[in-house]
What does this fold into?
Amino acid sequence: QVQLVESGGGLVQAGGSLTLSCAASGRTFSNYNMAWFRQAPGKERESVAIYRWSGSITYYIDSVKGRFTISRDNAKNMMYLQMNSLKPEDTAVYYCAAKSRFDLSQGYNYWGQGTQVTVSS
It folds into this structure.
């Protein structure tokens, strides 16, 4: 199995930047699709960015396009989310998630504990 730990969250002013990290351990990192999710208070969890195992397909939710960048370093078993031009509406708990590329079921199987990102107006 895969264990995921997020870090890098915190309090930042609107317009500022923050980088989130996700450290993975367990099974080989390169065979997993990875994603960042977030959940704001009182709102549904949403997928923010996805980086497939092959690196050939990426996804960003419309509201973060041009501001957020997802990346991964397979050699270090790390995934990152670089967040620029942060807005108050970006405030949420951000989660790292993983799914084996061999798993055909729906949804992500592994989740981190989450890291809080708070953007002040």
The chain has a mean pLDDT of 93. Residues 72 and 99 are 15 Å apart (CA to CA).
